[in-house]
Input
Amino acid sequence: MTHRVLIVEDEHHARTNLKRIVSQDERFSVVGEASDGIRGLEQIDALCPDLVLLDIEMPRCNGFEMLAALEDARDFSVIFATAHDDRALDAFQAHALDYLLKPYDPGRTARALHKAHHQLLGSRLAQKGIADIVRDPPQTSPRRRLVLRTDAGWSSLELDSVRRLSALGKHVEISSLGSKLVARSSLRKLEQRLGDAAFVRVHRGEIVRVGAVRHVESCAHGDGIITLDDGSAVPLSRSHRRGLLERLEKV
Output
């Protein structure tokens, strides 16, 4: 049985070297390459790999953002790669299948592939550890991007520009400075990915950036209307009013 491998690595020389090492193991076949996170997500959709060799720091979205963007649609094993041995390696050892340090060492890479081979023989989704790390990824730096699946493909948004997330049927409309897009996800799942540092739910179908709130107007029965810094008006439900006001007091 040959395992299908996707290499997601932004450095051309490192990607070529890794492909050469993997190709020497007849149990694996490199079916695709990607030089950034968005292209990596596109390749995962198109190629359905069994194993992804995944760099951490990449343009447009990093390795953790890639896995988080896939939400529950992960059916492959992952080996992380990093140039820095202080980049949450304890977390990788506890949760990931394995990790590789750059520059890639043939012997170390071969051992990681051998481990992947045995895991893949046992299960195509023996990835509880990866699921855990995606739900609560090591935050060595603040979240900077939100990577989303849309009808047009994958997109990456700078979190600082996002003002509002609105439920739109089974999808979510995301309003950022100067643009809007519709994500193929649920508001609940995106709320989990946002964390609670900068955003707050104000209605069962609305989440807003706390720092973008400019005015709160009271309406009947304890409901209200929120005005954001981009001029948009967002409904505020009575059940979420206290939570919003408490967050505004801390801004």
Summary: The chain is about 35% helix and 35% strand.
